Amino acid sequence: MKSITRIHGLDTLRALAIVLVFMNHYVLFVSNRAPFGFWGEIGWTGVDLFFGLSGYLIGNQIFSAMRSEGGFSLRTFYIRRFLRTLPAFYAVLALYAFWPWFRAGLTLPPLWQFLTFTQNFNLTPGTAFSHAWSLCVEEQFYVLLPAIALLIAAMRRSLAWAWVAVAASLLGGMAIRSYLWQTQVGNSDGGFPYYNVIYYSSLCRFDELVAGVALALLKNHHAGAWSKLTAHGNWALAAGMAVGGTALYLFAEDHYGYGMTVFGYPLLALGVTLLLIAALSPGSLLEKTPIPGFGKLALWSYAIYLTHKQLFLLLKPELAQHGISVASWSGIGIMTAISLPAGWLLYAAIETPFMKLRDRYFPVKRAEPHAPTSGSDPDSAKCGSGRLSEMA
Question: Which residues are paired to 68 by β-bridges?
């Protein structure tokens, strides 16, 4: 696979996302809060950071292609997406389905739910491969977004309608969560009702995906506003840390309450969006500063996400048998020392060959954009889009 230029800020955010998820799953399924404390408790927000990254990267691919001379190919988009995400997912799913030991005694939902990416609907927490719920949300997003984008593009005043769709999606998500909380969750203090009805639901968890799409829309169709926004990357970084930090604190205090259920996810989406702006702002601290090891961690993050949780469950009794506390740093070190190479192996053995296949037979067309639409600039679609499209 050809060498590409990495964007350090996006690598940092992607690596941060998998670290947060790693800590969260560790405290939930292994060590019961210790030793990560607060960061383990709110580490589930790493999934939301992944959602924001996906929304922007996929939105940018679609919008820049739609403005290019070559146009946007729905067929090529779907083939490239599926070659990127499905092979590793199916490889891990095969381990769950055909190797009972790998399930560690957990019940596996019907295979058709995984194959159709509907496993997150009415999901029972604690079942085998339950963390695939977020992949279901993303795959549903990958299928629907380009079709919706093409439909809106065919309408008169399509840019205005696109922003209406963004606003309606965010407001609709808040309304749906409000209704479901009041009618099915109430003061249940989390547990099965909250996770089953709200947390895993595609209808309730698309705030960051939509926010990322909005950012891509801004970049490709409002070049002036985009330039002004990305001219102050360090301010965006400070604001993102402040807004995101506030959201994390409030979720830690009252994750399952009505207020955070309705308004907390849009607040978190705002924080993620500001961090994405900082990561994409030329010369900002986040954009220009590579963190050692984070580039590789970002590359392997999808494979690590797929495998690490089940490795925790399999290794936990082994460590106990040898008298090693899972809450100790030595226990964490062993878990990490096994989880990272396992993720790399899946990336190298499954992801990489299929990405090479994808790039050989279904390459991204590098074409000049059309004349600018209202409020856009002919160079806006080119700025960074080539290297971004290979990372998604």
Answer: 369
pTM for this structure? 0.92
Q: SS3 string of 167-197? A: HHHHHHHHHHHHHHHHHHHCCCCCHHHHHHH
User: Contact, 28 vs 313, CB < 8 A?
Assistant: no
Q: What is the pLDDT of residues 283-336, one digit of tens each?
A: 999 999 999 999 999 999 999 999 999 999 999 999 999 999 999 999 999 999
- Per DSSP, what are the bridge partners of residue 369? 68
Helices (H), the chain: 8-26, 38-41, 45-66, 74-98, 100-103, 111-115, 133-153, 158-180, 191-194, 207-221, 223-230, 233-254, 258-259, 265-280, 285-288, 294-321, 329-346, 352-361, 385-389
Mean pLDDT value across the chain: 91
Q: Which tokens hold the place of 206? A: 């698309």
* Three-state DSSP string of 315-353: HHHHHHHCCCCCCCHHHHHHHHHHHHHHHHHHHHHHHHH
Determine the residue type at 296: K
- Alpha-carbon distances, residue 369 vs 58, 223, 228, 387 (angstroms): 17, 13, 21, 16
Planar angle of CA 278, 248, 252, nearest 5 degrees: 170
With b for 16 or more beta-carbon neighbours within 10 A and e for fewer, the 299-311 pattern comes to bbbbbbbbbbbbb
